[in-house]
Design goal:
A: globular, B: alpha/beta, 4-stranded mixed β-sheet
Chain lengths: ~80, ~270
C-alpha cells in the first residue's frame, strides 16, 4: 500500500495536470477549490478522476467539508 | 418526411438523422438543465421520433456540453416560477410540467426503436432519468450518476424511481436515493446501469457503433424483444407524480430550493 505522502503527491500531480495548474504552485494544505479555481461541476470531475486513478470509491458525503489536498489524501488512503 | 433533410435546431438542443439513427444533441449551458424551453424541445424531438420511426432503427441521445450529459431539472426556474405563484397554481404548474415530461420519457422508453444514451460527466437527477428511459447507457469514464433530490426534500420526478427499480437491484436503488451519493461509470457498469464504459470523449462514437450493429437486425424482432424485456411501469410512474406533488407542497421544499438557488458553496451538489 502506498504511503499517505505518496498518495498526496499523486493527487497533486493529477490535479495539476488535469486542471492545467503548475505543479509547483500546489501545496498539500491548499484549499483545492481556490488553488485549482474549480466550481462544483469540476469538483465532481476531480472526484471521478481520483476514483479512477486510485481504483477506490469515495462517497460524496465522506468528502463533505474537505477542502485541502492533505485531508483528501487521508480519505483516499483509508480506502486503499 | 425525408430523413436526409431532417435537421432541427431548438433553443436547448438539436436533432438530426444519420444512416437510420436519430441523434439528439443536448446543448444548453451550463449542463443541459431541463426547464420549460428544454421541455418544448424534447416534445418536438419526441414528435419527430414518432413520425420518422418507420425510417429509423435507433435513437442516440448525447450532450454537446463538456460538463456532462445533463444536471437534471432547472431548479432555478422551478424556484423562481413557483415563488411567483400562489401555492395551488404552483402545484398545478409542477404537475403539468411533470405530466408533459413523463409523456416524452414514456415515448422514448416505449419506442419501437433501440434507444441509446451516450453520457459523460454529470448525469444527475433528471439527466439520469432521461438516460434511464433509454434502452442502453454508454458511459465515458468521466460520467458520474446521482439522484440528489432527497436533499431538497423531494423524490426524483421524471420517472427515476420506477425505472431505476426496473433496471437495478434494491441495494443500489436505496443507496442512490436515500444517501443522494454519486458514483462513477465503472460502478454504474458493475451494478448493471451502464452497458459499456469507454474512454473519455468516446461515448458518442461507441453509441454510433452500437446503433450500427442494432441496424443489422430485423426491426420488428428487435421491437418485440424490447417490449418483452423492458416493460414500462406506467402505474408507478403515475404514482411518482402524485408523491412528488404532495412533497412539493411542503414549506421545507421551498426552503431547500431557496438554499440551493442562493448557495455560493463550492460544493452545492454534495449532500
Amino acid at each position: 500500500m502506498p504511503t499517505t505522502e505518496k498518495t498526496l503527491d499523486e493527487i497533486l500531480d493529477l490535479a495539476a495536470m488535469h486542471f492545467k495548474v503548475p505543479r509547483e504552485k500546489l501545496s498539500p494544505d491548499d484549499d483545492f477549490f481556490k488553488a485549482l479555481g474549480i466550481d462544483s461541476l469540476q469538483t465532481l470531475d476531480l472526484l471521478t478522476k481520483l476514483e479512477n486513478h486510485f481504483h477506490v470509491e469515495l462517497p460524496d458525503y465522506e468528502l463533505q467539508g474537505v477542502s485541502d489536498f492533505r485531508t483528501l489524501a487521508g480519505k483516499i488512503q483509508a480506502r486503499l | 418526411m425525408n430523413t436526409a433533410q431532417v435537421t432541427k435546431r431548438g433553443q436547448t438542443m438539436s436533432y438530426s438523422v444519420h444512416e437510420g439513427v436519430l441523434e439528439l444533441a443536448l446543448d444548453r449551458a451550463p449542463c443541459n438543465e431541463i426547464g420549460s424551453l428544454s421541455l418544448e424541445d424534447l416534445e418536438s424531438f419526441s414528435a419527430a421520433m414518432l413520425e420518422l420511426e418507420p425510417q429509423l432503427h435507433a435513437v442516440i441521445i448525447h450532450s454537446e456540453r463538456k460538463a456532462g450529459f445533463c444536471a437534471g431539472a432547472d431548479l432555478r426556474e422551478l424556484y423562481n416560477r413557483s415563488r411567483a405563484m400562489e401555492k395551488k397554481a404552483a402545484i398545478r404548474g409542477v404537475r403539468d410540467f411533470l405530466e408533459r415530461i413523463h409523456r416524452v420519457l414514456n415515448a422514448i422508453d416505449a419506442s419501437a426503436l433501440t434507444t441509446i444514451a451516450a453520457v459523460q460527466g454529470v448525469t444527475f437527477g433528471g439527466g439520469l432519468e432521461l438516460a434511464l428511459a433509454c434502452d442502453l447507457i454508454v458511459a465515458d469514464k468521466s460520467a458520474r450518476f446521482a439522484f440528489p433530490e432527497l436533499r431538497l426534500g423531494l423524490i426524483p420526478g421524471f420517472g427515476g424511481i420506477p425505472r431505476l427499480k426496473r433496471d437495478v437491484g434494491n441495494a443500489v436503488v436505496r443507496d442512490l436515493l436515500l444517501t443522494g451519493r454519486s458514483f462513477n461509470a465503472t460502478k454504474a457498469q458493475q451494478i448493471g446501469l451502464a452497458s459499456q464504459v469507454v474512454a473519455e470523449g468516446e461515448a458518442l462514437r461507441a453509441a454510433r457503433a452500437t446503433a450500427a450493429q442494432v441496424g443489422k437486425f430485423d426491426r420488428q424482432t428487435s421491437a418485440a424483444a424490447k417490449q418483452f424485456i423492458k416493460p414500462v411501469p406506467y402505474d408507478e410512474l403515475k404514482k411518482e407524480i402524485d408523491i412528488f406533488c404532495e412533497l412539493f407542497e411542503r414549506p421545507a421544499v421551498q426552503a431547500g430550493l431557496k438554499k440551493f438557488v442562493e448557495s455560493t458553496n463550492a460544493q452545492p451538489y454534495l449532500p
